[in-house]
Design a protein that fits this description.
The complex is a heterotrimer of chains A (283), B (257) and C (351).
Chain A: H1 2-35, E1 39-41, E2 44-46, H2 52-59, H3 61-94, H4 98-109, H5 116-126, H6 132-139, H7 153-178, H8 181-189, H9 194-222, H10 226-231, H11 239-250, H12 253-274
Antiparallel strand pairs in A: 1-2
Helix pairs in contact in A: 3-4, 3-7, 3-9, 7-9, 8-9, 9-12, 11-12
Chain B: H1 5-28, H2 45-51, H3 54-87, H4 93-101, H5 108-121, H6 128-149, H7 153-164, H8 169-197, H9 201-206, H10 213-222, H11 227-256
Chain C: H1 2-23, E1 25-31, H2 38-48, E2 50-56, H3 60-69, E3 77-81, H4 85-90, H5 109-112, H6 114-117, E4 118-119, E5 122-123, E6 126-138, H7 150-153, E7 162-165, H8 168-178, H9 191-203, E8 205-209, H10 211-219, E9 225-229, H11 231-238, E10 244-247, E11 254-262, H12 269-280, H13 282-289, E12 297-298, H14 309-315, H15 320-326, E13 328-329, H16 335-349
Parallel strand pairs in C: 1-2, 1-3, 7-8, 7-9, 11-13
Antiparallel strand pairs in C: 3-11, 4-5, 6-9, 6-10, 6-11, 6-12
Helix pairs in contact in C: 8-9, 9-16
Classes of the chains: A mainly alpha (283), B mainly alpha (257), C alpha/beta (351).
Amino acid sequence: MNHAKQRIMGWGFVAPALLWTMAFFVLPFVVMGAMSLATMKGRTLIWDLSLANYLELAEKAYLWRAIVVSLEITLTVTLVSIILAYPLAWIIAFRVPKHWQRLALLLSILPFWTSYVVRSYAWLLVLAREGMVNNTLISLGLIGDPITIANTRFATVTGFVHFFVMLLTLTIYANLVQLSPNYRRAAMDLGANALQTFRHVILPLTLPGVVTGAFLTFVLCIGDYVTPQILGGNTELTVPQVIMVQLGRRADFPLASALAIVLMGIVSLAYIASARWLKLDRL
Amino acid sequence: MMRALPWIYLLVAFVFIYLPVAALVLFSFQSGTLPVPPFNGPSLQWYGEILSDDDLMAALRNSVAVAFGSSAAAVILGFFAAYGLARYVLPGSALIRGILIAPLTVSYLIVGLGLLIVLTRSGFVLSLLTAAIGHVVINLPLAFAIIYASMGSQQQNAERAARDLGAGEVQVIWLVTVPILLPSIAAAFFLSVTLSWDEFIIAFLLTRFDVSLPVEIWSLLRSGLSPRLNAIGSFVFLISITVVLFLEIFVFRRNRQ
Amino acid sequence: MKCMRKILLSTISMVAVASNAAAKDELNALVWCDHTDPALIEPFETEHNVKVNLREYEGTGAALALLEQSRPGDWDVLVIDGIDVFRAVEAGILAPLAVDELPTADFFPEVVMAENNSVDGVTYAVTEKFGYNTVSYNSSKVDQSDMEDLSTIWSDKYNGRISIYDYYLPVMGLAAIAEGIPTAKIGSSDLDQIGDVLSIMRSNAASVAGVVAAQTALATGEVDIVVGGGEWLTAVLAGERPELTWTIPKEGAVRWAQSIGVVEGSKNSDLAMKFINYIVSPEGQARLATSSCFWGMPANAKAGDILTDDQKAVLRWNQQPDYLALTQLYPAPDADLDAEMQDLWLETLQQ
């Protein structure tokens, strides 16, 4: 009797969150999946359960190119951000004096709190031909004429890397400080130098944290609309941009849904690839 | 030289991180209508303009309301779900956990798109409420994960002791569990507020007239190049870091002692 | 007794608050960004003691979808591209307009565009503003004479210095005009030729940009030419940067016109009519013409009495008769051709 009552109480606690997620996440997802099998003729929606949208994805160059562009940019951003953030997190965790660490960490993520939209816009102005970067390079005599940086893939990647370096510094730092100093001491005692210690002890131990951060970066980056839209100059479109075009100009919900499902598919592949190290419910 | 390398890296990193912020703040004081070099003497005209812009200030209030409202809902739902899963043995608890965490792996655009389709086809009017619903969807998994991860045996023992002393379930939760878990509940709330406050795409898709601040800023972006954008960005930044520094100095420092 | 009093007091205060809130009528308008300028909206709000709720939208497709998904009464006023009025009428979105109450006699004759604004003899919308998609440029950085000929505007000479306005209809219209194809006669078979011109444009362009991005690019010196630009793009900047200007090449350019109408099923159709009356009045027209998002020529010529000489100079008021004669309307494709054109556009962007 007590057992059954326990069960009911347990369900009672879990039910609200579960119902919310089912109603406002799972259901929309299923509906979107169904929508991706419909077609838009002119402006009428026809529920014909066809794979026409997915076939369109394979046929039309601008659609599958968007997938390629998204993947290229996201993988570049993830790699570069990890390479830049790890040393920064390391320095804050192991070189900065203990009581300054929190401040250093806070300072390195403070720009998080400028509006995301405005921050991307600010990069546009910084990278402009008459902006800060070009002005500095010219006054240092490194270049003669201003170079075009804004409205290119480089600008998009820079904007992304800026954001994710801050995010990854936070997550990698959290990981590094949890490491017991005993591991390093033991390695040193056994005669390993700094590089060996890093390669064989620290890196494997922090790998789960790095992979989790990388996965988060991947998901957030590939699904982002704002940064490529502001910084990319529309010279090449990413999947979120193409989705928004379908919504904004043609109100083509079926095609937009199909693109969204494909995006989810890519993220799922990334999840499977990193599942070994991922511990999402132990954030 | 090798000794100084970490510090040089730190410096370069900070320059990179603060470059857009510096440009933003500097040109918010631009006297002139274009936020690009050359910088003409400091002027407060743009701050004056944004503070007297009713739409912008309304959007600011809307953002605060949606952020606090949706975060409160997310934390409450997440807390009870974590409590239920940690304290009671339920069949398929791994599946339940999976479902609750799942939204973390889905891009905001997709969450927003799905909700847009369902809500408009059901005849709901888009508003701040629908945007808040979307924000709860994305923040609930985080709140749940953070609170669930911090439920440990120490507090389980305290709860058992309280029950042995005759406390009812409600009392146990309110007087024992919540106080012990307060740091992670607060962390979950704070994180949710931060994410909701600055969230763009879901708010963009799911609001109609009353919009949140990022959406209003986006409209500004599309209706005229001006240092107003710099001003509102710097203004938001200023408020946010004041809050963060305040929390850091008066709340977190105190906890550590 | 005390309980009763409390309930009574709170009810009264709630009713008071509710009726106060209901005192102001509201008008819901789906508009282009130039209608969100407070200088345009506030005089109307104050005079009639109403609140005007504005929502901007990107493309006609999105607006039509939004309206179709809304319930009757959700929206009162719609601003829409002149050539898309018939689509809105087909979708049952616009209500007939009492055009006799409006001062269309004072309009520039070429922009009354009765054929576009009416279906089967019934008028559904009225033109409120017009302008040109042609070329905007930085006169201190390019050769003026190159800007007078469509073939030299996007030539290799300006490789990397060009931005293309991100709207497929006028830019494809310009490409068609460059090939000698009238915009009204564009067909499926012309798309290859148009596509070739677009490719050339694209290969010499640094970016494809919306309104603000194009303005930013011109103002920061990122580009010196915007294909598809016009007074609407540079007039806003002209005060501070007089070297940013526009022109219409000898082959001609594309003319845009926006119309405004009352939404079918509106519960505030009287107020909506008052709003439209305000917009097409000389004062409203002058404010709309110089609105903060983008400038344009007012449909009502009487607005010229209110605009300043400087404003009229920027808008090239005196050259309008020539410009009107030289320019063609947007291409007006049917649904299938439209889909093909949009695909061609997206293909071009991705090159």
